[in-house]
């Protein structure tokens, strides 16, 4: 995403550089990106639920189907090394992953090939890439790293095909997230130092307003919480993190 014209750049170069430095360790479940490996099953649980809710009634997608995205295209924006692209591919989608970091994209492509998955990966700013529109667009833990959130969401919305589905997740801007996601998590090494900047977090109300401004409406929203004995799980408590689905306004 960093090679776009200045008017299209929404990802800060220092953010892309930071995550590029983590690329080689991305697929290590006990490495620096362990937190993403732990939250990914929770995110995929929500994604599967949102897919069934969005297309199930109209297209007869059975919630027991192993490939509910068969015949559909999916785009993961800010794909990192492919932690979401690969399960989307296994759900049957024709997947494209886009990331600001060429290093991430290289690692993602290598891992997908080794896993026998046909996934298209591209490095660049989503607004500058000629990739068309997609039935499903995912963008997880990305918007908190974006300088101009409104411009970025406009670019995201432009990638959603008519009748399509958007899924995004991000930390909430609360006292709890400042203490736990930034302070404690970095202090104990749960996430690499410098991962989060609390002032860039966005509240659910702010997010809903921005989505509305670019022509989208939220259809589902859940918190991602942590509980002793339960670990990370979908919850009504969105004080730390939340995930949502949205569609184009009719």
Automatic annotation (TrEMBL):
Q: GO molecular function: any one?
A: 2-polyprenyl-6-hydroxyphenol methylase activity
Reaction catalysed? a 3-demethylubiquinol + S-adenosyl-L-methionine = a ubiquinol + S-adenosyl-L-homocysteine + H(+); a 3-(all-trans-polyprenyl)benzene-1,2-diol + S-adenosyl-L-methionine = a 2-methoxy-6-(all-trans-polyprenyl)phenol + S-adenosyl-L-homocysteine + H(+)
Q: A GO biological process this protein is involved in?
A: methylation
**Could you say which EC number(s) this protein's record lists?**
2.1.1.222, 2.1.1.64
One Pfam family this sequence matches: Methyltransf_23
Matching Gene3D superfamilies: Vaccinia Virus protein VP39
* Pathway terms, separated by semicolons: Cofactor biosynthesis; ubiquinone biosynthesis
Question: What family is reported?
Answer: Belongs to the methyltransferase superfamily. UbiG/COQ3 family.
What's the protein name?
A: Ubiquinone biosynthesis O-methyltransferase
- Biological classification of the source: Bacteria, Pseudomonadati, Pseudomonadota, Alphaproteobacteria, Sphingomonadales
| Gene coding for it | ubiG
């Amino acid at each position: 995403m960093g090679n776009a014209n200045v008017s299209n750049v929404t990802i800060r170069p220092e953010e892309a550089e930071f995550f590029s430095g983590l690329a080689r360790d991305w697929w290590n479940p006990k490495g620096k990106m362990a937190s993403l490996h732990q939250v990914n099953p929770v995110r995929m649980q929500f994604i599967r639920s949102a897919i069934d809710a969005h297309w199930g009634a109209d297209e007869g997608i059975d919630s027991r189907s192993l490939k509910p995205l068969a015949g559909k295209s999916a785009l993961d924006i800010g794909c990192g090394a492919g932690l979401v692209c690969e399960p989307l591919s296994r759900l049957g989608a024709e997947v494209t992953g886009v990331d600001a970091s060429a290093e991430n994209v290289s690692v993602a492509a290598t891992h997908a090939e080794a896993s026998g998955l046909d996934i298209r990966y591209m490095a660049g700013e989503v607004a500058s890439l000629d990739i068309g529109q997609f039935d499903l667009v995912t963008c997880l833990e990305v918007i908190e790293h974006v300088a101009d959130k409104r411009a970025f969401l406009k670019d995201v919305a432009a990638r959603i095909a008519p009748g399509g589905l958007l899924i995004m997740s991000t930390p909430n801007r609360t006292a709890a997230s400042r203490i736990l996601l930034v302070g404690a998590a970095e202090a104990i090494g749960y996430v690499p130092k410098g991962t989060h900047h609390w002032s860039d977090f966005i509240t659910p109300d702010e997010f809903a307003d921005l989505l509305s401004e670019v022509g989208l409406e939220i259809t589902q929203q859940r918190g991602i919480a942590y509980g002793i004995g339960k670990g990370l799980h979908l919850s009504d408590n969105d004080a730390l993190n939340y995930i949502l689905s949205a569609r184009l306004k009719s």
